[in-house]
Amino acid sequence: MGKELSRSFDIEVVNREYKLVGLCETGNFPDAFPELAVEVQRAFWDRRKEIKHGKDYEVLFSPFMCNGIIATYFGCVEVTEIADVPEGMLAFVLPETTYVKVLCTNKTIGEGHDKLHEWIRQNGYEPQLYGSSQIEIYYIDEEADEEPVEILFPVSKVNP
Asked: In what residue span(s) does the AraC effector-binding domain sit (predicted)?
């Protein structure tokens, strides 16, 4: 497993660009959540190795966008370059963005989101969703009951 389990909710600010290839589905929010997110992730997982130039096929990137009415969920692999995108999939680049990142697990993801939003409020940041996306990164270990997860939330500094 590439990441150790973290139960301490370590938080840091990172700047990154992501090149991703995968599947997505859109549904009513909150009615379709979390079932639709899980559905697209499972469908993608079965097809992930069709993608060329994947960095790590055991890491599931799950960006999502929600306006409170509808939500779009993705299942993706990070790639070194975008080429030969498999049929039915899409490729996109999330440009370099400042993210606040928290480490948690698949069993503590709700608490991870809570800690992240609390930290953002207390440290002079605000959400910056236009031109970016929230991302959950799952380090898959099909034999483990609990897996490491990173949650990234795009932000900007208030009055920098």
From this structure: 9-156
